[in-house]
Amino acid sequence: MEITLFEEYLNCILDDYKTLNSGELANYIPELAKVDPELFGIAIVTVDGHVYQAGDTRHNFTIQSISKPFVYGIALDDNGVDEVIKKIDVEPSGEAFNSISLEPGTGRPRNAMINAGAIATTGLVAGDNSDIKINRILKKFGEYAGHELSVDMSVYKSESATGHRNKAISYLLRNSQIIERDPEPVLDTYFKQCSILVNCRDLALMAATLANNGVNPITGIRTLSEKYVPKVLSVMTSCGMYDYSGAWLFNIGMPAKSGVGGGVLAVLPGQIGLAVFSPKLDLHGNSVRGLAACAKISNDFGFHMLRISTISNTSIIRNSYNASQMRSKCIRRFDQLRVLDEEGKKIHIFELSGSLTFVSAEIISNEVLSLMKYTDYFIFDFLRISSIDQAGFEIISELMEKLISILKKVIFTSIQDKYGLLKELRTVLNESDNCKFRTFKNIDLALEHCEEEILYKCGMHEDMISVSFKDQDLCRDLEQEEIDFLESFLKFSEYKNGEFIIEQGDDADSIYFILSGQVNVDLSETEHFNQRIAVLNPGTAFGELAMIDGGKRSATVIADSDVKCAALNFYELEKDGSEMSKQVTLKLTRNIAKILSDRLRRTNEIVKSLS
Amino acid sequence: MEITLFEEYLNCILDDYKTLNSGELANYIPELAKVDPELFGIAIVTVDGHVYQAGDTRHNFTIQSISKPFVYGIALDDNGVDEVIKKIDVEPSGEAFNSISLEPGTGRPRNAMINAGAIATTGLVAGDNSDIKINRILKKFGEYAGHELSVDMSVYKSESATGHRNKAISYLLRNSQIIERDPEPVLDTYFKQCSILVNCRDLALMAATLANNGVNPITGIRTLSEKYVPKVLSVMTSCGMYDYSGAWLFNIGMPAKSGVGGGVLAVLPGQIGLAVFSPKLDLHGNSVRGLAACAKISNDFGFHMLRISTISNTSIIRNSYNASQMRSKCIRRFDQLRVLDEEGKKIHIFELSGSLTFVSAEIISNEVLSLMKYTDYFIFDFLRISSIDQAGFEIISELMEKLISILKKVIFTSIQDKYGLLKELRTVLNESDNCKFRTFKNIDLALEHCEEEILYKCGMHEDMISVSFKDQDLCRDLEQEEIDFLESFLKFSEYKNGEFIIEQGDDADSIYFILSGQVNVDLSETEHFNQRIAVLNPGTAFGELAMIDGGKRSATVIADSDVKCAALNFYELEKDGSEMSKQVTLKLTRNIAKILSDRLRRTNEIVKSLS
C-alpha cells in the first residue's frame, strides 16, 4: 500500500509524541501492566470507508471502558429509550469514572459512562444468562469492527478476581432494583465485555460506524438503529470523558470515550472516526499520548463538531430552467417546436444537489412558490441529492402536498435509488391513490412526457398525425415541381415497432423522411440499446448527414412504434446530373445546414443553462 | 406579509401549547411578576436570513440569563481563551443556576452559565467602569439583534435592590481574586445586562448569528470571532440548561439557554436559531411552554445536532473531464483541433461543488493522484463550493503543495469571491513566489490559456501563423480553379485591435475568412462587451450562417488583435449565375454543414459530460 499524504501527517504525529513518556501503565488489573509501554498507533476511518493508519494499529489490547457507549447502544436497541432512562440517567456526574453517583431516592446511576451506569446497562442487554449476553455483545461489536472479536480470558480472570469495587456497585444496584435479578451474571458479562480484544483500527472503524449514522462504512451493515445514534453520541458528549467532559468538548469537540487498556476513540459526526492507542495513562485513567494526539489532530484540522464551515451559501438548486430552454431528446418538427417554445414555460425543472436540510428545502419551497403562477408541471431531479435530513423531508413533503392540492403535476426523477425516501414520500402524500405524483428514471424521459401532454392538449400529438413528403422540415422552400421531381426518387417502406431501420456501420446512401410513427437513435454496442441519443417524430429526417459527408452510418435507428418512411437515395439524385437535380441538391443541403444551425443554437443554449 | 407553510406549522404549535398552563411567573424579582402570563411567541431565523414567526414575537421582555453566553463571547473576544479559563472553568456543575460551585483552592466558578461564573464573566468585559462595560455589552447585543437595545431600568432597579445572593457571590469572587477589583461595578453591570429588553424575534436572530458562525445573517455584521463560536456553543451545550443539560442534549440536542424573563433560545449550528417566549416558569426557572415548544419542534424536524443525515454520498466533484472532451470557446482550425483531441488529455478540469471537508477533500485528493501520470495541468473550479472547513483547507493545500513540487501546473477558477481562501492558499503555498499557481475568472479562460500553452509547444500558436485563403477550413476539397474563381470575389481588409468588424443587426451579405489575428464574437448590448460567445482564430470564418439563411447579423464581431480578413460577398457570387458559381456555392454550403455538424457533435459531447 502506498502511504497517502494524510498518513505521512499521522506518522509525523507519532514521531512528535513518542517522546511523551509521562503516565503509568494501568496497574489496578495485574494483566494490564504487562503490555509494552512504547506501543503507539493512530487510525482514522471516514464515513465513505477510507482507512488511514500509522504505527501500531494492528496490536490487540482490551477495550475496557470504550465498550460502554456501544453496550449502551445495544441496551437502547433491546429496550427502547424509555425503559433505559428509567434505570440510568443521562446527566454528567462531574465525578470520576469509578464514582458511584446513584440518584437519591431512585438509586439510578447518573449516566451510562461511569462504572455504575455501565454495569446497569449491561444488565439491560437482552439474554437470560451471561453467555447469551456476552455473545450478543461480541456479535454486535464484531459488526462494528467488521470482523469477529473475542474475549482475552486472562484479562477477564484478572478483572474478575480483583474487581471488588465493581462487585459492591452491582449489589448496590441490585439493592435499589436497578438490577432486578442476581447481579453476579451481569457483573460477569461486564468483566468479559471490558476484556474484549480490539486494535486501534477496529476502534476507528467502530467510531466511524457511529459517525456514519450507525452503518459500518466498510461492510455496509447497520449496527445501531438510526434513531439511537444521536442518543449514544449525546451521552458520549456530556459524560464520555467523566469529569473532563466539559473541557474535552470545549477543546476537542468530539463525542469520545477512553479506556484503561490505552485506547481512546472519538467521533466527528457525518465525517470520521478516530482512534489512538498508547498504553500509558494519566491520573484520570486516559492514555497520555492518546489525548495529546487527539487534541493535536482536532486542532490541526478543526475537527470540532460545533465548528461551522466558513462560507455558507447553500447551492441546493444546481440548475433551474423551463422546457422552453431545455428540450427532451425527442426531435420534433418546426411547428411543434414553435408550440413548445411558448408552452414549454409551463414545465419547470429543478436539478437539486447536495443536502436537503431545513434551510435548503425552504429555498426550494420559496422558489417553487414564486413560479407557481406560470407553471403546471414541476420536475424535481434527485440525482445529485447527497443527503436528506428529517427537517428537509418534512418541508419537501409539505410543499408537495400543497402543489398536489392545487392540481399541479409533480414529477420526481432519479429518485429510484434514494433508499426509503420515495416510499416515505408515497406514504406521506397518498395512502391509496398512486397518481398524485409520478416518477421517471431521468429528466429527459420526464420532459418528453410533459412535452407530449402539452402537445396533446394543442392537438399536435404524434398519435394524431402523419406528415406527407412535401410538408417535411427538410423540404421547406421547395417548389411543387421540385417536390414532384424528388418524389420520383423516393422509396416508401414500413417498419414494425422494434425493427431496425439502419445499423451503425452500414454504407450510407439515403436520407430517411419519417411520414408517421417514431424512431429511436441509438449509439450502443449491439444487444445493449440503452443509451438514447434522440427520438425522432414525423416530419423530421435521419441519415441526412451522409448527404454532406458520405461514409458509414454512425448510429443505429430503430422503429419505436409502427413507422412509415420515405427514403431518398442521394447518389441516384447526383447521377441524374440535370439542372433540376443540382438545384434541389443545393436547397436540401442548405436546409440541412439550417437545421444543424438551429440545433447548434439550441444546444449552445443548453450548455449555457447547464454551466 | 403572506404566511408561509412553515409559519402555519408554528401557529399550530401555539394553538396546541397555549393550553399548557402550569408553572408560575418569576417572583423573586417583583417587576417580573407583572407580565401577562398568556404571552406566547415563536421565532426561527435561518443562516441565510429567512425569518419565520408566530404569536407574540414583538413583545419586549428582559433577557436575564440568556445574556450569559453572549457576554461570555465578549469576554473571550476581549481576553482570549487562556485568560478566561484562568477565571472560569468549563465543566458542568450538575447543580442549579444559583449554585455557587467554586473550585476548591482556586475559587474558579465551574462554568460561565451559573450565576457565579456569569458575574465573573461580566468582570472580564473590557472597560474600567460599569457604564463603559454595559455600553459595550449593549452595542454587541444590538449587533446580534440587528437593532439598538436598551436596559429596562425598573427591572434593573428591582434586581439590584433584591439580589442579595448575587451580591454575596460577587464578594466570594473578590475574596478568591477571580474579581480583582471592587466587585460592586461588576455586579451593577451584571444586573443591567440581565435587564436588557429583547423580543422573541431578537433572540432568534441572536441564536441564528451563532448558528451562522458569528455573523448576523441579516445585517452581515460579524459579532463574535469565528474561533470563539465553537467555544460559546460548547459551554451552552454542556452547561446551558444547568442540571438539565445532559437530558436537554439527549432529548433536544441543541446548544441552548433560557432566562427567567420567559425566553428560551436554541442554536442548530449551521442551520437555524430558534427562540420561544412565554413567561410561566417551571421549578428550574425555565419557560414551561418554551421547553415544550422547543422539544416539539426539535422532534418534528429532527433538529438534533448529533443527528446525521440519512444518505451520505458526497458529490464534491460535480464534473471531471479533460480538454479533449471540453474545449474553450476559442474556435480553432481543424489541424489545431486534431492536436487538442490528443494533447487535450493533459489538461484536467475538476468542477467542485458543495462543502470542502476532510472527507470530500480526500476524495478530490485521491482522484487527482490517480490522474497524475497523464495530466500536466489541473484546473479546479470553485464556483459552486459552498463552504470550506479547516480540515478541507488543510487537505487541499497539502495536495497543491505536492502538485507544485512535482512541477504540475495548478489553476484555480471562480475563486475570486471566496473570501479569505485565496489569500490563505497564497500564504500556505508561497510566501514570495507568485507563479506557483494561477487563477482565472472562469474555466473557459483557463482552458484557453492551457490550450495555447500546448499549441505553442507544438509550434501551432496563433502568434506564429497566418492562413492563406486556399487553406481555410471552409475551402476544403475545393479545386485550384475553384479557389481562383472565388478569389476574384474577395475583398481584403485589415482591422486594428478593438475595432468592430460586423455589428449585431447589420445586413448580412458576406462570409469573413480570418487570414491572421483573432476576433471575438459578442452578443451583449452595446457598450457592455462581457459575454464572450467565442474567439476565432486564423483559418476559421464568421458570418457564414448568413449564406444559408440570410437576414441580419445576430452578433457583433470585434478584432481581438490586429486582424487581416478576406470577405466573400455571396450575393455577388449568386448574381454571377455561372455553372462554376453554382458548383462552388454547393461546395461551400456543404462545408458549412460539415463544420456545423462537427460543432454540434462536439457540443452534444459537452452536454453529455455536463449532465
Q: Which class of secondary structure composition applies to the elements of chain A?
A: alpha+beta
The CATH fourth-level homologous superfamily of the largest domain in chain A: DD-peptidase/beta-lactamase superfamily
Q: Could you give the order of strands across the largest sheet of chain A?
A: 2-1-7-6-5
* Biggest sheet details of chain A: 5 strands, antiparallel
Short description:
By secondary structure, chain A is α+β, with helices and mostly antiparallel strands. The model of chain A is unreliable at 525-529 (pLDDT under 50).
Keywords:
Jelly Rolls, homodimer, Beta-lactamase, Transcription Regulator spoIIAA, 20 helices, 611 residues, five-stranded antiparallel beta sheet, 41% helix, five-stranded mixed beta sheet, alpha+beta
